[in-house]
Predict the structure.
Amino acid sequence: MGISVAFVDDHPILLEGLVSIYSGKSDLDIVAKGENAIDALKIVEEHAPHVLVLDLSMPGDAVAAIDLIAQKYQGTRIIVFTANSSIETAIQVLNYGVAGYVLKGSTASDLHQAIRTVHGGETFITPGFATKVIMAMKTAEMRRRKQAQQRLSLREEQIVRHLMRGSTNREIARCLDISEKTVKHYMTLLMQKLDVRNRLEVVLAAQRLEVLPDATFERERIN
């Protein structure tokens, strides 16, 4: 018994070509083919292939089908075989549980290797394109971590709100019932956390983080 594989693509000539090429591989067993997202779901339900190779641009919601299959039929590994070279799209479907992302234009041996790789429990992305995807994912993760580090505490938000009103350290200390020394300490922490140099830059950085909506300032000012 070889690796059971199903192909789903709405281009008849390409679909027949895939079936023809890979039917001749001794380690593969082609169990089904389809043309749209509904077909993909039916194939997985009826045949439970080890690997499902599908296009993203076929009729129906391919991404929704991928999400459902990845959650409900974890025994089937999914390879996206597509002309879509959008890094954002690749990251999206990989996050949904896709195990392989192969660009059309790849060689037959590349797709064959992808099938074997994902069946073995690993991830396969078209060489060259993989580097771009990995770098984009690393950049996004670094951005998320930086944003998490920049989240302000309740007290820091209170101080920034007062800064936005033009309050002095003494006024902030009086309003918050803390010492001026404590206010200065928080100012130092804010400048370090937001990587800025002065009070004005603290306010601008906080606005960019969207942690202090104008409506909130106004309600506090009125109260």
Notes: The mean pLDDT is 87.
